[in-house]
Structures are given as C-alpha cells and as structure tokens.
Specification:
about 60% strand, twelve-stranded antiparallel β-barrel, mainly beta, about 350 residues, 16 strands
Length: about 350
C-alpha cells in the first residue's frame, strides 16, 4: 500500500512539473497555453515519403520540338529523415533507386537534400536548404521515351527563407515540425523572404547543336501568406495556407557551339509572380503522430529567356513520427547552445 501511494505521489509531482514548465514557457513567449502545447522536453524523429522532386526548364537549346527543354530527374519520390529538439530541426533526404524508371533508358539520378531549420525567437523562423541533383533526361511531350539523357548534368541550390509568425497563439511548429500541438483553432499572417542561389553545370558538348554548359541563377522572393490550424477533434487536425508573392530573378546561361567554336551568354533579369498553397490532415497524439500534406507551387516568370530553376509543381508528403524522452547529455549541449546563441 505504501508503495502504491509513493508511486501515485511521484506521478502527480511529475505531471505538475510538466504543467508548470508548459505554463512558464507560454508566459516567456507570450502566448496562451490553452492554444498551444509545446513539447520542449521531447526529442522528435520523423520519416517522410514525398514527391518533392524538381523539374527544370531551360530555353534556347534549339531542339526540333521547340526552344525550351524540360529536364527531368529519373526519380519521383524522396525519403526524408528529420530530427527536432528545442529550437533546431535537422533534415536529410535522398531518392531511393527502387522508385526510378529503367536506368538504361532514362539514366541514373542521384539526389541529396540537407536542411537546417530553427527559431531565432518564438515567432521569427529561419530555414537553410542545400539541394544537389545529378542525372537528368529531356522529356518528350509526344512519346514515352526521353529525347535525350544527360547523366553528368548537375544542379545545386543553396538558399533559405526567413519568416515571421504574427499571431503568438498560432503554432507553425504543429504544421511543419510537430514539436507542438495546436489545441484550439488559430491562424496567422506570415510574411517571408526567400533567397536561392542556383548553379547548373554540364560536362557534355554536342557535335551538331548548341550545348548548355552552365547556368547561374539567383531568386529573391517575397510572400505575404496566411495559415490556419483547424482542430477537428482531440487528436485530429487540418491546416490550410495560401502564400501569394512576387520575386526577382537574375540568371546567366552559357552555351557553346562546337561547329563554330563560339560561346554565347544569355542574361536575364525579370520578375516572377508566385503562389504557394498548403493543405494538411493529420493525427497528433501525445507521442505518436502522422498524416499527409499537399503542397502546390506556381511560379510565373515574365521572360521566356529565363532558365526556370525554381518552377511550378504539385507534390504530396506522407509522414509518421514519434516523440521520445529527451537525453540528458544532449539536453545539456542544447541548453549550452541556447545560452551562447540566444
């Protein structure tokens, strides 16, 4: 009897300590605890299976079917692993070979994505992205087999996004990282600035036609979006978001014609008008969570000479994850980093 009484007393003490910590966290970050539950004492692991694979449109290659060539990687699916704890999120993804088409026809594609996502404050968020893709084929609009294969064509993107969540009670973490739960309906306007450096290079020189050597491209984007978390039941949620905006693209494309031994540089500076749409439906329990997201991106460039290294697409993301108890050694390291950085 004494043992059971001691156990119940210890359990009540731990629950009180957790509630007190959650209230203190809400007070320090100026939001109402009845809107958000923060899992600041959990380490979160998540697995995603998504179709977030980019195609690239390159103009002025003088192909028989038109002046624009669509380069497509021989991968349609990415597998992503992520780790989130306190203020930092780490993401790594690649494309498994078992989702590829016949490599003897479409060539081989290798991909690697790395992302770091963290909060400067409770509402000011930073994302840093690195993408590298090598191996493409040129899509044919009239037949199933590709027009051509570029196994050495490589595209690298380094960039990021900074945005501010205007409503304290809205939890972006509950949508993106699952480090929180939204427990009452809330929405927020989210202004953001994106910046991406893109580099394309090819080692291939064709005998009788213009060859693409490299492309340097920079995109600066501004969006003013709105997102809303809907609580469907105690453990189910939905999220809707729309992010219209505009941007500036500056690109230089380098071409070479072996027959005349001439190099051509095409420069382009123009605007783009863009729209991102988000839809999510998920299950979010105390530790276990999962669901899917649908994202649509539409980028319209006002110049046909632009190499579209950021383009329009629709992709779906299925995810599942679990929140584990924090490790004491890792906790000490993160607390030290928080004191040094923030």
């Amino acid at each position: 009897m004494k043992f059971y009484f001691s156990f119940i007393l210890l359990l009540c003490f731990r629950l009180y300590a957790q509630d007190e910590g959650a209230v203190l966290h809400a007070k320090n970050h100026k939001y109402y605890p009845e809107y958000r539950i923060n899992y600041f004492d959990k380490m979160i692991f998540k697995i995603d299976l998504n179709s977030d694979v980019d195609n690239y449109s390159i103009p002025n290659l003088n192909r028989a079917l038109g002046d624009e060539s669509k380069f497509v990687p021989n991968q349609k699916t990415k597998l992503r692993f992520s780790f989130d704890y306190k203020f930092l999120g780490l993401f790594i993804s690649y494309s498994p070979n078992f989702y590829a088409k016949d490599e003897s026809v479409y060539g081989e594609t290798k991909t690697l994505d790395l992302s770091f996502k963290f909060f400067y404050t409770d509402r000011l968020r930073q994302e840093v992205d690195f993408k590298n893709t090598r191996g493409f084929y040129v899509e044919s609009p009239l037949q199933s087999t590709p027009l051509d294969v570029y196994p050495q064509l490589e595209i690298r993107t380094i960039g990021g996004k900074t945005f501010y969540i205007m409503n304290n009670n809205f939890s972006y973490r509950a949508f993106e990282n699952m480090t929180e739960r939204q427990v009452r309906n809330a929405g927020s306007f989210i202004p953001s600035i994106g910046y991406y450096f893109n580099k394309l290079k090819s080692k291939r020189v064709d005998e009788n036609e213009k060859s693409l050597l490299k492309v340097y491209s920079f995109d600066a984007l501004f969006q003013y979006g709105y997102m809303h978390n809907f609580i469907l039941s105690r453990k189910w949620f939905a999220t809707l978001g729309a992010h219209p905006g505009f941007g500036l693209n500056n690109s230089r494309s380098y071409y070479y014609e072996k027959a005349t031994d001439e190099q051509t540089i095409i420069k382009s500076l123009n605007m783009n008008f863009n729209l991102d749409l988000n839809l999510a439906l998920g299950y979010n329990n105390k530790n276990l969570f999962g669901g899917f997201k649908v994202n649509f991106r539409d980028y319209q460039y006002d110049n046909s000479k632009t190499a579209e290294l950021i383009n329009s697409k629709l992709y779906i993301d299925f995810f599942v994850g679990y929140r584990f108890k924090e490790n004491k050694k890792i906790k000490k390291v993160f607390e030290l980093l928080e004191k040094k950085i923030f």
